[in-house]
């Protein structure tokens, strides 16, 4: 379990994340939603130690993240940021192999190679594994990054808007893979999503942020209703039930 | 290009280099151990060859590490003020100690090279406008400022004559006795290879590095220390060799990518070969005179550099 306690981040006098406390259960997909600037990325960055919190603490399975060794932390928690600028010329396979870095320091053993193969296969990158990243499309590159994080094989996987740049097919594919990581391998996935329908269909829990505070936190079915969405987004969004899925029809509200 | 071919080419060129020069020496002469030819061979030709190989490999790898750590393809000892800071360091060591030993010169110029490079990296961090071409220009300006400081103080204290030997790279003065300092680059190259994977990860950026559990700051600083050490040993023994650390890593990057563990041996080989070719050409073009290596590398290198600039533009 990841416990976030009273976490705050200030830029100047403005608190962009303010006394946020949430518990993230193991073996679930927890989606973070909320309007632009709500503080979702900032929160994820603090949980994953990319950013230092100003107050509060984060515990991963009861261990304070600030006290963990970098390498141990990297074996337990991985993160993919919202935007990734990388001008290192690596092939897809090389990039994904670096996902094993915390475990192998670059000297891959058989087990590492197997995990890398699997991560590439999950993301259907097999036929472009020897292409250089700068020769790929934005969405293909995004899939390569996700594949790298999967190869890192951590208990907790944090993804900040991983569906950026992806077409419908690959968005669905990635959400299904995340579901498999959780259901079959017992991983814990924390994901920031803007499309609430993906959140609705695939997540176990939803945490909604607004102006740096948690405004909703609960099982998916408790959050995906017109009332709660009104509170989060200031929009009247009707919900339609379609074969097990609750779809938010927000396009003309 | 296969590594195998590179090694074959290197051996062939090394052989050529050993037997090109004002006094003609043939392999047969070496059979007589006490002949004058053998003496020249051992005192001048062999050290020259070793110096070229080490300087070529060292400067190329140093450039490659810098480009990886600064995440900019146009940063190198030439374009980040490292070379100029080194020279300023040499001047300071000459002013502080009237008869500075090689080790004192080395220590002081190392401190300057490192400080200069770190300062440039700080400037790089603060620049908002991170255009790939703008940054090396800033580096060149920074280098020129250091360089004018050096010239100014060298004039004031009448050591400009002594300094000029460090202005231009020159292998014709390489003799046994002084070039041995270059051997330092051997363990440095080995260390660079050991750290290659870490440098690659650092090149992905600070956030990626942290995600992968890398101690980013340490690795960057460690890399820059290696770079400064190599640069200092080369400048102190051979002199400035511009552009080498810029063009070789760029060519390798285009051909084989940036996975340093894979490309480092290639870069070292290519650097040595390129410098060897420049040196041999410099020795035969206006025989029996010599064109200095920095002029040769400067002319050929700046041509390739321009080509790379335009190429980058095309697919940027
Ligand atoms: N380095 C910074 N300096 C100052 N303010 C910042 C900085 N980084 C983020 N902020 C501010 O913090 C707030 C939260 O940003 P954050 O990136 O966490 O939002 P978000 O919820 O991820 O938004 P989005 O959905 O657009 O990605 C924003 O108002 C932003 O302007
Ligand atoms: Mg964000």
UniProtKB/TrEMBL annotation, chain A:
One of its GO terms (cellular component) is plasma membrane. GO terms for biological process: iron ion transport. Residues 2-236 form the ABC transporter domain. The keyword ATP-binding applies. The keyword ATP-binding applies. SMART domains: AAA. Its main location: membrane. GO terms for molecular function: ATP binding; ATP hydrolysis activity. It is found in: Cell membrane. It is a peripheral membrane protein. Gene3D superfamilies: P-loop containing nucleotide triphosphate hydrolases (3.40.50.300). CDD domains: ABC_Iron-Siderophores_B12_Hemin. Keywords: ATP-binding, Cell membrane, Ion transport, Iron, Iron transport, Membrane, Nucleotide-binding, Transport. This is Iron complex transport system ATP-binding protein. The lineage of its organism: Bacteria, Bacillati, Bacillota, Bacilli, Bacillales.
Automatic annotation (TrEMBL), chain B:
InterPro entries: ABC_BtuC-like (IPR037294), ABC_transptr_permease_BtuC (IPR000522). CDD domains: TM_ABC_iron-siderophores_like. It is found in: Cell membrane. One of its GO terms (cellular component) is plasma membrane. The chain crosses the membrane at residues 48-67, 88-121, 133-155, 181-198, 218-247, 268-286, 292-310. One of its GO terms (biological process) is siderophore-iron import into cell. It is a multi-pass membrane protein. GO terms for molecular function: transmembrane transporter activity. Keywords: Cell membrane, Ion transport, Iron, Iron transport, Membrane, Transmembrane, Transmembrane helix, Transport. It comes from the Bacteria. Belongs to the binding-protein-dependent transport system permease family. FecCD subfamily. This is Iron complex transport system permease protein.
